[in-house]
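Trying the structure run again after the queue cleared.
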Amino acid sequence: MPPDDAPVYEASFRPSDTLAEAFAEFVAVVRQLRRDCPWDREQTHASTRHLTLEEAYEVAAAIDAGDPDALEGELGDLLLHGLFHSRIAEEAGRFTLESVLRRETRKLIRRHPHVFGEEAAETPEDVKQTWEAAKRAERESGGEPDGGSEDDEAPPSALDGVPEALPALLRAERTQQKAAAAGFDFCTDADSWAQVEEELREFRRAD
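Done. Tokens:
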């Protein structure tokens, strides 16, 4: 696998001047809003949390509607929130937009060894397994190599990585998917009850 500072793009690709200019202008506008707009200046991570969630749902709604024009607009709004939260953190001395981008870049490289390394992945299912294996390795080593950790105190769990902020039904679905990936996936009610009874027996033996 390449080192964490390996380039994220092929040598044949470079961001265009217009793309770099558009991104730089976007960042500059967000910085000026934080400096000069009374409303933007007083916002915090917590005060804009619900707005960030709303923007994510609006992106989903635009996708469901099959409306590319709406999706373009909603993606811009969601990107704004990423830059806005990064700026709030930078002002507080916690992290910067640059560190966010570099951290995510390194994560993508680590979790795609079939693209940036020597491992093979022939199917989407292979890729999912590789991704989950990389996440497990990060948890077992105490978090991401660049400092990330979902919980520095708790031992690694097969159910780690399901955000508590997810809506209840979606959180239940994600939890079940992770449980199934760990081997807790049963085809019949009888199989499920057999597993429950086995867990109860183990609990009684441990008591």
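Residues 141 and 173 are 27 Å apart (CA to CA). Worth checking whether this holds up in the mutant runs.
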